[in-house]
Amino acid sequence: MASIFDRFKSLLTKNAQQTAQEYNRAIYNWLGESVVWNPENNDTYINEGYRKNATIYSLINIITKAATTIPFQIYEIENKADYKRYKAMTSGAIDPNILHKSEILKKRALVEIQDTELHMLLDRPNPSQSYNSFITELIAFGKLTGNRYIYGIAPESGNNAGKYKEMYVMPSQIMEIISGGIMQPVKKYKLQYNGNYDIPAEAVCHIKDFNPYYDGTGTHLYGQSPLRAGLRSLTTNNEATQTGVKYLQNQTARGVLMSEEGDINEVQAQQLKDKFRQAHQGSNNAGDIIITPKKLSWVNFGLNAADVSLIEQYNASIKDLCNIYHVPVQLLNNTESSTYNNMKEAKKALYQNAVIPELCKIRDELNRWLTPMYGEKLCIDFDFSIIPELQEETDKIVNQMSQAWWLTPNEKRTAMNYGEDEDNEIMNDYYIPANLIPVKDMSSINEPEQIDIEVDKLFKQKIPAFHDAYTTQEEAEQRAREMGWDGQGVGFHRHTYDGRTIFMPFETHDEYDDALQNDKYHYGKPHDEEQKQMSARLEKALKKKADDHNESVGDTASKRTTVRTLYTVYKRGIGAYRTNPESVRPSVSSPEQWAMARVNSYLYALKNGKFRGGKHDTDLLPEGHPQSTKSNEDDYIEKQTYGDYPQSATNNAKRVKNWIEKHGRSEVRGMTEVGLARMNQLIAREKLSLSTLKRTFSFLSRTKGGGYNKINPDYRDTPWRDKGYVAFLGWGGEAMLKYAERKLNQLD
User: Fold this and answer.
1) Where are the domains of the chain?
2) Whole-angstrom Cα distance, residue 568 to residue 581?
3) How far apart are CA 254 and CA 617, in angstroms?
4) pLDDT per residue over 482-531, tens digit each?
5) Residues 656, 729: contact at Cβ < 8 Å?
6) Which helix (H) or strand (E) holds 200?
7) pTM, entire model
8) Alpha-carbon gap, residue 180 to 187, rounded angstroms
9) Residue 689: beta bridge partners?
10) CA-CA distance, 113 to 589, in Å (whole number)?
């Protein structure tokens, strides 16, 4: 029983605590600016949670690893109303049944853009971190402390003044808030590490979890850690683990061996014990038959109530911690309840309830704090459509609807809650499954070029080779003129894809590809001052990479590189993206990004002597490098030029030139700028490099395969108007094709 003194002491203490709280509130309201101390014990959450508890460590790693697989994208807002609806639809857990609806809204509201300053900042937030490590650190601090702090550093002067060029995740446990007073915005932040450092409020993006605790001193300004609610479960889990370790370290005998024929002395007992150890202990003696000279019996010690309770408490604490972090317990390698089906559902629940809400919270705060300084209409978003666990239901619906040919497109849209397209008449007709031609237009089945079907934006975006795709011939021809070829090769060609006919600039796709690779044209935009600046930026970026790399490797010749070599790697990356887009990872959204990733991979292999993944550009690695395929013989062959091609190839080129001089470029069509250069080389009997021979063989073999090595009967009297035949002759014709093939075989 407590004494009077103890009761009096307790009363004084209680009054003192109450007085202190009232004093703190008064000071906070009176001063208007003061440090708001974080009541959360973040050190406990970090040390006792992530650093010492295997369950918490696993849960946070599961969330962060899943989150980093979802790529970010940058868009320009076109429709604010649809954008608001899209944000509302994706602000919480995304149900697979509405995923396709949100994607439709997204396509109507946003247009993806590439290669902005914001892209570069997010790809590499600071010199020591990639996007992956940055977002991992940000999410992990949030899941441990309920607070995520991003510190942005911007130049004070120059063209980029006010724009963040570096971003850092600040450790939550050493950040304090300087409040501007009750119900006032945050004044600044204080970093407590080897001293106190003030950080302006506008330079910090504070992403916090909901905190209902409001005591009038500003503690509500901090987010509440999930582990505050799960502190008892965390403590139970740690104590159960520690108790289990001590039990295993100090466990007693597991049973008693008893004699049924009377007592045995200590010597006999020890002899029997040693005999059992020698004969029956160890893996080699497991399951062996026991033979004893006397009748013996074994009494086993089972688990007592405390032991059973310990196991139950441990398992219950794991389930509680999983519930707190919205991670299904099956993902913790819980074999008791894991099957193929519920593992699939568990992964789906992980994305729906843990990953997507976390990324949406980060997305919304970055769009509030970061994107306005780079453009008012810009926004950051994540591509949730690539999550395979959320695709199954959508795929089922789409497949079912695609096979229902007896329904009109508008009926299908209504069934999927997309709404009718009232402005497009063809949406109210029936389509046969073969090639999606309206039934009433079956007469045109052999004339697909007459069907004017709109080429949607998604089609152009997904297939880089069809970037300039149009619905009419006139649009395609106009595009060819815009590309700056002075009437040469102006025209169109058509492709049929998925039952749709599209029209593209130039008379052949090869001419279009040549235009894309020519310096006069760059990814669908005229080559103006902006493009020149872009090229200058590329050169500057590659030069910096080369200089930094060479400085790090020193004078080792087999590890050094040049800007020209890096540019070659970059161009190969551009070409690989265009010619083989299905090999590109979903997270890569542009040929430039793919090309620069190839440059970085090449530099890594050059410095470390091995590639991170697949090998590429080994022929560009210096001689002596362990991965280099270059040899003295290769260098010799590469540096050689070849001028022993037949005179008949030269005569073919002269024939085309005579046609041009006689009839003019407007009549003699089919020669691109690259083709004209090759024609003049052959006429002048210039020696051709190995790379030129390879390209010549590639072009002529493709052209012959298309039947352009022969005159079209329609142009028998006017062969200079046969564009394919003109291009074939201009590159040297059949004679040059046979020579190039023979020479390349010899060199190989």
Assistant:
1) 1-27, 32-228, 431-526, 529-630, 641-747
2) 19
3) 65
4) 665 444 456 777 776 555 677 887 776 666 666 665 544 433 344 444 44
5) yes
6) strand 196-200
7) 0.48
8) 5
9) 641
10) 9
